[in-house]
Amino acid sequence: MTHPSNQPALLLIGHGTDDPAGLEEYHRMATLVGERLGIVVQPCFLELADPPISQAIDDCVRAGFRQIVALPLLLGAAGHQKNDIPVALNQARMRHPNLDIRYGSPLGVQYALVRAMAERIETTYAATSARIPRNRTALALIGRGSSDPDSNADVARMARLLWEGRGFGWVEYGFFSITRPDVAAIIRHCIALGAEQIIVAPYLLFTGRILQRMTSQVESARKEHPALPILMAEHLGLHEGVLAAILQRYDEALHGVAAVNCDLCKYRQVMPGFEDDHGRLQKSDHHHGLRGVHHHDAPALDTILPPRYRNGKPVSVAPMSAAPLVYDDEGRVAWDRVWGGDDPNNPFCELALAGGPPHRGTLLEPVSPEAVAADPEGYARVVAELARGLRMVTGLPVVTGNTPGWVGLVCESEAMALWLLRAIVVENVSVRREGCTLFLPAGPDFRLDGEIKNVVTAVAKTYHYWKEHVQG
């Protein structure tokens, strides 16, 4: 690794493969990115290849870098992006407290990738000798497959964007594994719809074992339907559109505009069939985010989480005894004086270690934009009181008016925002993050001694623990 300039290092996080051709393609892309940006690109992998994320970050620090942009080279937002990588980055922040790590979004469904997939398909269609018209040709977009509906939905979205305006009769989507429909089912479906030709388009970044097995699945379908032309397009690979998509995500992360799609995340919203995942804390294992991390290199989770969250024990949803509201001389709630303790200089310490919002049995969620529009004056009063309370218990800036149903708390760093998000979710308060800003629920019917107090309580507790116990 060359000596750093004032520019950041780019941590390009691939999934990893044991296939030599796949690794070579990944490294060629990393080289292209480095040449295009004129910066140091540090490749690393979640599994199956070296170096792991932790080692790559440590190498950057040893080389003198003080800022890293971490980009997940993944097409969709699933467990690796939502859990494994954030855990690895948070561990690195603990080892290197002066290191600025900016975490980017996965590649997702970008225009550049739509264009790249379309060009792969057009090249395959133009090369066929059957001359079957477009309106009798079906496209079968095949993704990797995930246990996360958010990631799988991106495959459906890409399929629809490929169909629009291109004249093909049908565009169906399926998955290599984990979820349905699979390759065989999609091909049978296309035939049942009347397709006279099918183009299978692998929605994969690089070659490797999955592409090889997907090709075998297509070969099996050809044997099952010998009279039907079943073509296979090239995977995304080193297409210029992939490079453009990576550069876009780098620019977003560097300038602080990258945002994770928390609104459709199964860990933040109740999704049918995935109820057990709702509210789960971020965690990883020694095959992914914690690969390469030794126990003596970073503090154990027990040393940074409040007692309630430790040892993986389930969090009680039993109501907690609530502190009464305290009012100032003007009759307003003195939020900074509600929670007492033995130390008058740290009024929130007792709350942070033992207390919590009294509504623990249900998730406190934002209201719909329609509910806000139905009572704008009531909503404005609630937002004003929430903003006042949040400022009093944290001293942080508060933003309002951006999105109906949400109030934004601007954190000091992305690391702080990530930690607070995890801790607030445990308190059964809905929260989402955009960069360094946490968005907390608001609604016109929120009561001072009910929902408003619950939000301020959760933030007061978790903010205190972050400032006095985690950073301290």
Automatic annotation (TrEMBL):
<keyword id="KW-0479">Metal-binding</keyword>
<dbReference type="Pfam" id="PF01903">
    <property type="entry name" value="CbiX"/>
</dbReference>
<dbReference type="GO" id="GO:0016829">
    <property type="term" value="F:lyase activity"/>
</dbReference>
<dbReference type="GO" id="GO:0046872">
    <property type="term" value="F:metal ion binding"/>
</dbReference>
<dbReference type="InterPro" id="IPR050963">
    <property type="entry name" value="Sirohydro_Cobaltochel/CbiX"/>
</dbReference>
<protein>
    <submittedName>
        <fullName>Cobalamin (Vitamin B12) biosynthesis CbiX protein</fullName>
    </submittedName>
</protein>
<dbReference type="InterPro" id="IPR002762">
    <property type="entry name" value="CbiX-like"/>
</dbReference>
<keyword id="KW-0456">Lyase</keyword>
